[in-house]
Design a protein that fits this description.
mainly alpha
Length: 267
């Protein structure tokens, strides 16, 4: 396939207009380095740095997406390398949060409170704002990449993000909190948000199971996300919802067993 010819004037216009964005990315990368260095000297930053750095990496991802959109607007050229840089930046945002809250989906909900010790500055309200910013960036990145080879890479990122959100909740603090506490409302919003992300991840892996030819690991993963919701419901005494989730897990498990029997018969 012949390479698309782009007029010199359009290239120059793109270079000129994208330069401030490139400088913005360099500035954000410098801020990350400064925070990393400062955190070694200043204990006051402490665990809060993980949230600060995640926010900056998300800003970098947004900047790369801006560059690609500018390229599309001026040259009608989608730049995969730039979008890959955006994906890497967003991955780093999520991975940075994993360093604090962990990446294990079946993490004991009460043990998480120890990891979150001394992060009181990052209130449930602030967490919600950061997480929704990351989710929105992941959404627009998905739209720019348009599925294809990226679909399951993005699913992996989304599911990792869902686990991070769930692991960021201090359930011990929530269950002992007075409902008149201003944080109580946002804690409950954060819990609902985490459950929504976990359910979306479960549904996506359930769909992948059907598309990929009934690969057992995909169904197992889908069930893991539902089990995470189940644990949340049990900790918060949300027993009606827990019953519904348990039924779905049982239904999906039965479906997987039936599919395995069919596979065995075909051998």
């Amino acid at each position: 396939m012949a390479l698309k010819r782009i007029e010199k004037e359009k290239k120059e216009q793109y270079q000129q207009l994208s330069q401030p964005i490139k400088e913005e990315i360099k500035s954000l990368e410098k801020k990350i380095q400064e925070i990393e260095v400062s955190s070694l000297k200043n204990n006051k930053i402490g665990k809060y740095k993980f949230f600060l750095v995640a926010n900056l990496y998300t800003d970098i991802a947004i900047s790369y997406i801006k560059m690609n959109r500018l390229s599309m607007h001026i040259m009608d050229l989608k730049q995969d390398e730039i979008l890959e840089n955006a994906r890497k930046a967003l991955y780093n945002a999520i991975a940075n949060l994993e360093k604090l809250v962990g990446s294990t989906i079946d993490e004991d909900l009460n043990d998480v409170s120890e990891r979150l010790k001394d992060t009181h500055q990052m209130t449930p309200y602030r967490k919600l704002n950061l997480f929704k910013k990351i989710e929105y960036t992941l959404k627009i990145l998905s739209e720019e990449l348009e599925g294809g080879k990226w679909k399951y890479k993005l699913l992996e990122m989304f599911s990792k993000f869902a686990v991070v959100v769930k692991n960021s909740i201090n359930f011990r603090e929530l269950t002992s909190m007075d409902p008149i506490n201003p944080n109580y409302r946002y804690y409950n919003e954060l819990v609902a948000y985490a459950k929504d992300l976990l359910r979306k991840s479960a549904d996506e892996y359930r769909e992948k199971y059907e598309i990929s030819g009934h690969e057992v690991p995909d169904m197992r993963k889908a069930q893991e996300f539902l089990k995470a919701i189940l644990r949340i419901c049990n900790v918060l005494s949300q027993y009606d919802e827990a019953k519904e989730v348990k039924k779905i897990i049982e239904t999906w498990n039965k479906k997987m067993e039936e599919d395995l029997k069919i596979k065995e018969k075909r051998k």
